[in-house]
Amino acid sequence: MARAGLTPERLALAGAELADEVGFDEVTVSALARRFDVKVASLYSHLKNSQDLRTRIALLALEELADRAADALAGRAGKDALIAFADVYRDYAREHPGRYAAAQLRLDPETAAAGAGVRHAQMTRAILRGYDLTEPDQTHAVRLLGSVFHGYVSLETAGGFSHSAPDAQESWTRILDALDALLRNWPPTP
């Protein structure tokens, strides 16, 4: 019999909180069972295994991130939209490091297609329409933005910029200015 109050959604949220505390790689069904002070077997009526839990946390994180991005983008275009979108990713990664790591989890195609990752791609492409990019340049630009945002926040959250001047915020601002200038003059000349 399932323990009262435990649902897959509640377990995913608790797993996300645990990921923020101890790191996404440390989240397992066993760790979650300890958090609820229940036997591991009691969670298997809600979860298939640790991979199912990890997938649910990833989907939760992608949904939270998409909701934040949509709110930040409302009424914005061009450079304003680019900066708002980038700041959402950076802020989320700093506030929720475990969830941000979960959002990078590789999902099977069917799960990915049903998740909020599709919304992320749509929002990125909407921003790029403000720069008048068409295919295949738009896809190249989507990959560029994802790489820059993820690379920067990964280095920053790992402490990579904490021991030198200038301040990481100053670098972030300059990087976003450079991205905006690059996108205005796309495609770059070889």
Task: Please tell me about this protein's structure.
This protein is mostly helical and 190 residues long. It has 10 helices and no strands. It has helices at 8-22, 29-36, 40-43, 50-73, 78-95, 97-103, 109-114, 117-129, 137-157, 168-184. Helix 4 runs antiparallel to helix 5 (78-95) and helix 5 (78-95) crosses helix 6. It is globular. The termini are far apart. The model has no long low-confidence stretch (mean pLDDT 92).
What is shown here, in short?
By secondary structure, the protein is mostly helical.
Poorly predicted ranges: none
Give the proportion of residues in helices: over 70%
Total helices: the number is 10
Radius of gyration: 19 Å
Shape: globular
Give the strand content. under 5%
Distance between the termini: 65 Å
On the 0 to 100 scale, the average pLDDT is: 92
User: The biggest beta sheet, please?
Assistant: none
Number of strands: 0
Structural class call reads: mainly alpha
Topology pattern, helix = H, strand = E: HHHHHHHHHH
